[in-house]
Amino acid sequence: MSFRHAKTTLLGVLVLCALASAATSHLNPYAYWLNVAYSIGINIILAVSLNLINGHTGQFSLGHAGFMAVGAYTAAIITNHVGTVSPLVANLLFPGALLAGGLAAALAGLLVGLPTLRLRGDYLAIVTLGFGEIIRVVLQNMDAVGGSRGYSVTHFWTNTFWAFGLAAVTIYVIGALVNSTYGRGFIAVHDDEIAAEAMGINTTKYKVTAFVVGAFFAGIAGGLFAHSTLYLTPTGFGFMQSIAFVVMVILGGMGNTAGVVLAAILLTLLPEGLRFLAAVHIPGLAAERPLAWIADTRMIIYSLLLILLMLARPQGLFGAKGLRARK
Amino acid sequence: MTEFLQQLINGLADGSVLALIALGYTMVYGILRFINFAHGDVFMLGAFAGYYLAPLVANDLHVKLPSIGGALLVFVIVMTLCAGIGIFIERLAYRPLRKRPKLTVLITAIGVSLFLEYTGQFVFGAAPKKFPELLPAQPLPSIAGLSLNTNQLVILGTTLLLLGALRFIVMNTRMGRAMRAVSYNPEAAALMGVNTDVVISFTFGLGSALAAAAGLLYSMTYPSIDPLMGIFPGLKAFVAAVLGGIGNLPGAALGGFIIGITETLVSGYLSSTYRDAIAFAVLILILLFKPSGLLGKKVVEKV
Known about the structure:
The complex is a heterodimer of chains A (327) and B (303).
Chain A: H1 6-24, H2 32-56, H3 64-79, H4 87-113, H5 121-140, E1 151-152, H6 160-179, H7 184-191, H8 193-198, H9 203-229, E2 231-232, H10 239-252, H11 257-279, H12 293-312, H13 322-325
Antiparallel strand pairs in A: 1-2
Chain B: H1 2-32, H2 39-59, H3 68-94, H4 102-124, E1 129-130, H5 150-172, H6 174-184, H7 186-191, H8 196-221, E2 224-225, H9 231-244, H10 249-269, H11 275-289
Antiparallel strand pairs in B: 1-2
C-alpha cells in the first residue's frame, strides 16, 4: 500500500470522525446501533494491533484479550476517580486515561514478550494464552476492582470520534511502522527467522517490539471498551475472546491490513445480523418469527463457517498480505 | 503432614485425569505436529455419552448400576464411541488440511472445538446435568488419619491400567511401531510401507478413547457436567503435555500429575481462587528454563 498520502488521509479521516461525532452527539449514547458502531471501531483496533504480532511478525499470540483487559481496567480505575465534568473536559481527560491504559498494557506486553523470546510456534501460542488467563485470574482476585463480581465504569466517554479516530490512528501507526525501513525487520522475522538473524537483524528486539506495540493498542481498545460498555468482568476477557480476535486476523488474511479491518467489521456485524434475522417477521408465513432457530444456532453457524473457511480459503477471505504485495 | 498427604492423594486423582487427556494431545502432536484444540471437547463428549448411556445400560440391558460390571460396560462402550468420534473428526476436518500450514489446521481445530461446544449446548442444553453413579463410592477405613474413598482408588487404578495398556500398544505392537515410525519421520515411514492414514486415524481413536475415559473418571468425582466442561481440563492437559515435553508420552503423564498435584496443593494451602492460573504459571516457569519441556528433546532447527 502506498503510504505517500497516508498522513493526509489520516487527517481527513480524523476530521470526518470529529464531524460524525458532533453529528451524533445529540443522540442517546446508549442507542443500540451506536454501540455496535463503537464495537466496530474497538474491534478494528484490536484486530489491526494483533495483526502486527500474528500477521506481520509471524508470531502466534493467543492472549490479546488479556492486554485489552489491562488497558480497560487501568483506564477505568483512573476515570472512576473523576467526578461529573463537562464534555469538553471529558474529551481532554479521556485520551490521558486511554494512554495510561495503553502504557499499562504495553508493559504487560513487554512482560509477555521477554520470556517468550526462546519460544516458537505452538509453545509461544500456549504461553501467551497462559499469560492472558493469568491476567484474568489476577483480575478476578483483585478486590479493589470488584474481583469476579465485575467493575462498574462511571463515565460513558467513548464516542464516534474516539472509537473511529483511534482506529484510524492505529491503522496509520502500524502501517507506517511496518512500511518503514525499520519495519522491514518485522516482515523479515515473519518470512524466515533464521535467515533474518543471519542477515544481522535483531529478531529478539523485533519480536518484543511487536508485542509491546500490539499490546499498547489493545490496551487503548480496552479503554474505549470500558467507557462504552460501562461494566467490566474478568471472564469477558477470557481466551475465547482472544480467539475471536485471532479469527478476525485469519479471516482478513494474515498481514493484510485492509482485509483485517474488513474482517473486524464483518465479524462484529455478523452476530448482530444473525440476531436481527432471528427476530424478523416474514409476512405470509404462519410462524411469528420463522427464523428464530438462528438465535439458538448462530454460534454453531459461526464455528461451521470458520471450519469451512479454513477448508476452502485458508489464506483468509481477502488473501494474506494481498495489498502489500501490490506495491 | 497428614493434611499434606491428603492433598497429595486428592492431587493424584485430579492429575491422573489430566494425564489421560494430555496423552491424547501429545500423541497427536507427536505425529501431526499440531494442537488438537478439540481434544478437550471429546473429553466432554465422553462424560455426556456416559450420562446418556448409563440409564440405557441399566434399563434396557438390565445390567445393575452402580456396579463394577456395569461401570466396565459403560467405559468400554463410551471409549469405543468416542474413539469413533475422534477418527471421524480427523477424517472430516483435519485430513483435507494435511499438507497445509500448521496455523490453518490449528484454527480449524479451534473451529471444531467451538462447534462441539455450541452443538453440545444446543443438543444437551446449557444447564449442568447430574452425572449418574457408575460405581458406589464408599469411604475406605482411614489409614493414619487419611480419608480415602473407593472412587479415588478406581481413578488412580484405571489411569495406571490405561497408561500401561498405552505403553504396551505403543512399544510392543505392530501398530505402535508404525506410530513411532510416523512420528519419527512420516515420509520415510510411508516409503517403508506404513499406511500413514491408518496410523493417524488409529492415533486419533486411541487419544479420544483415553479422553473419554478421563471424562467418565472426572465426572465420577465432579458429577455436575455441562457442554463447556472440557475447556479448562483440556487447556490444563495441553499445558501438561507441553510441560512434559510435547510428543513425549511419559512426559505427558508426568506433566498431568505435576499440574494436578500443584493445583491441589496451591488451592489447599494458598488460595483456591488462583487455582486456574497455577497450571499456566508452572508452565511459564518451566519453559523459561527448559523451553523443550521436562522430558522433551531439544530440536535443533536445520536450515
